[in-house]
Automatic annotation (TrEMBL):
One of its GO terms (cellular component) is cytosol. Residues 13-260 form the Pyridoxamine kinase/Phosphomethylpyrimidine kinase domain. GO terms for biological process: thiamine biosynthetic process. Its EC number is 2.7.1.49. It comes from Candidatus Limisoma faecipullorum. This is hydroxymethylpyrimidine kinase. Pfam families: Phos_pyr_kin. The gene is thiD. GO terms for molecular function: ATP binding; hydroxymethylpyrimidine kinase activity; phosphomethylpyrimidine kinase activity. InterPro entries: HMP/HMP-P_kinase_dom (IPR004399), PM/HMP-P_kinase-1 (IPR013749), Ribokinase-like (IPR029056).
Amino acid sequence: MKYPVALTIAGSDSSGGAGIQADIKTMSAIGVYATSAITAITAQNTTGVSAIQGISPEIVTAQIDAVFTDINPSVVKIGMLYSEEIIMSVAEKLRLYKPKYIILDPVMISTSGSTLISPSAIETMKRELFPLSTVITPNKAEAEHLSGIEIKDTTSMNDSAKTILSYGGLYALIKGGHFEDATMTDYLYNKSGLVESYKGHFVNTRNTHGTGCTFSSAIAAYLSLGKDVGNAIRMAKQYLQSALEQGSNIDAGHGHGPVNHFFNPEKLKTI
């Protein structure tokens, strides 16, 4: 027997609601053994990001080497990568170790509106990491930025997803949290078009810090438990929905507080 293992490659959030901290909390709550490679340190809370310091690419790759050569995760979730140099170093290691699944959350802007990556780094990400990815998980604004297409309806969304996948990747999951739609529907595309949609419902709360990190980490966790892509997304959607609901009335900070990752934690599983 062994633990299901997932690796998160992302930045640290000192407030604990997003980034590496949210990833580890999410994976742990689902019963998966979480490992990590930290790409940047942020001074951050629920109201914004006040400072960022990138980790040297050599230390980032040393963390990845340490995890893969010993614990060997089957699934990797990628969040904030900070710089072109880190992106290229991460891509090199993923090409070497070839994990079964890679979930890429193209983190560009925080919930509070802080920019977390440079325009040149975004182009490098598209070139180096999109072709390696199983699922790319942009929200509406990120999908528009990545594709250069304003999403106004299902046709423009399909065009946006098609453009994103032209850079590489098996699936693009365009998240519906930023649409003016109470169903909060997420849309999964492959290169042939729409594969499936995942409906939720609106939760009236300001505690939305780290929802993207949480969702992508939950997908990674369920994949590491042996679920297929469609079911992993469906289960991750339900996990995030419940985490939002259970944390909706909690006073945690003066801005966008965190979701409740541990509303119903699982024991660490074995496979």
